[in-house]
Amino acid sequence: MKMSFRWYGEGDEVTLENIKQIPGMKGIVSAIYDIPVGEVWSETAIKKLVQSIEDKNLELTVIESVPVHEDIKLGRSTRDKWISNYKQTLRNLSNAGIEVVCYNFMPVFDWTRTNLHAPLPDGSNSLLFDAKSTNDVDLFNGEFILPGWDISYQEDELRSVVDQYKEISEKKLMNNLIYFLKEVIPVAEEENIVMAIHPDDPPWPIFGLPRVVTNLENVKNILSEVDSPNNGITFCTGSYGANPDINLIQFIKEVSERIHFVHARNIKRLGNGSFQETSHLSRDGEIDMVGVINTLIESGYNGPIRPDHGRMIWGETGRPGYGLYDRALGATYLNGIIDTVKSINNIR
Ligand code: DNO
Q1: Residue predicted with more confidence, 158 or 324
Q2: 232-236, 256-260, 311-315, 344-348: lowest mean pLDDT where?
Q3: Looking at 71, 86, 165, 198, which residue is catalytic?
Q4: How far is ligand 1, taken at its centre, from the CA of residue 198, in Å?
Q5: What are the φ/ψ torsions at residue 266 (nearest 5 degrees)?
Q6: Is the pTM of this model over 0.90?
Q7: Close Cβ partners of 342 (under 8 Å, ≥ 6 residues apart)
Q8: What angle do CA 92, 97, 99 make, to 5 degrees?
Q9: Active-site hit among 165, 201, 240, 263
Q10: 322 catalytic residue (yes or no)
Q11: Which residue among 6, 37, 64 has the greatest number of ligand 1 atoms within 8 angstroms of its CB, and so is best to mutate?
Q12: 156 Cα to the center of ligand 1, angstroms
């Protein structure tokens, strides 16, 4: 497996120099953040990003993410123009040597939490999702904004886009995803890129918006409707693991050939759909990290993996979930598991 680390570009307080000092760290997971959603990423801009990472003797292993324009998710008549842009971005990424692209198909909002600094008993703090309080959230007052979200919407635009989803059932959203994949996967095949769809986080509908990348059955449907090795998934332990009915080990076994990227993080379920993120250690939360890694290795997974959200520890402040220290501890824990499992099984 290739251990990698998310980096938010030159403006990230966590620098490439910091990341390079984490034992075993090879890959960088990044994106271009100043291009409006849907516009083509130029080859020049991509190559500049690649170069800035290679200058530090690291490697751009995964693009996370190339965002999907809302018109594609909504299945609007303008979607073909945005899909054609997406294809061009894939071609440009491939010309710059990129082989893995992570993306998601969540309507309007990316991952959602209700508290970004919830205390843990050890004195650190972490991200928390309180299912009850999503009902009280005023989406439109401009105060409820999360790090992964596209905040370029004005209030009336946001209202209008959320309204448009009232017409979109889960079935329709799934059809729109399949339509998108039927268009882009042939290009990904030509360009030698594997696409890795990230689960919805949390993996169920929120704010009355539909969500479809939520469970094994839906994932199997997505993979079989466009049955190509280039049509794959990001296996995110913390997202799928928030649903107590999902058996992560069985999930990996059933779709292992189509896992192209792994996000490893741990959560503690608090009942009724609420959860708080914890350290990566198996016993701190619900995720059997050793079992997950072992199953990935058994099924031959050799792609990129990154420690996902960390707690804020040792007084660190910064981008919630994306500080340096706890993610570095996470990487070290994951490396320990990987090395041990490989050594026990005589795998090099
Ligand atoms: C959160 C991330 C997500 C992820 C996107 C992928 O920390 O896992 O924002 O990058 O959903 O498109």
Answers
A1: 324
A2: 344-348
A3: 198
A4: 7
A5: -120, 150
A6: yes
A7: 297, 348
A8: 95
A9: 263
A10: yes
A11: 64
A12: 25
Report how far ligand 1's centroid is from the alpha carbon of 32 (Å): 14
CA nearest to 212, candidates 104, 82, 70: 104
List residues near ligand 1 (CB under 6 A). Answer: 64-65, 102-104, 110-111, 148, 198, 263, 309, 321
Mean of the per-residue pLDDT values for the chain?
94
| Out of 147-151, 267-271, 272-276, least confident range | 147-151
- Which residues 6+ apart lie within 8 Å of 168 measured at CB? 73, 74, 75, 107, 176, 210
- 58-79 pLDDT tens trace: 999 999 999 999 999 999 999 9
pLDDT given at position 179: 98
Tokens describing residue 27: 């890959």
Q: What pLDDT is recorded for position 145?
A: 62
> Any alpha helices (H) in the chain, and if so which ranges?
16-20, 43-54, 70-74, 79-95, 155-164, 170-191, 216-225, 237-241, 248-255, 289-298, 325-344
Domains of the chain: 2-344 (3.20.20.150)
Q: Is 236 a catalytic residue?
A: yes
Whether 308 is a known active-site residue: answer yes
| Residue 12 annotated in active site | no
> Where is pLDDT greater, at 157 or 148?
157
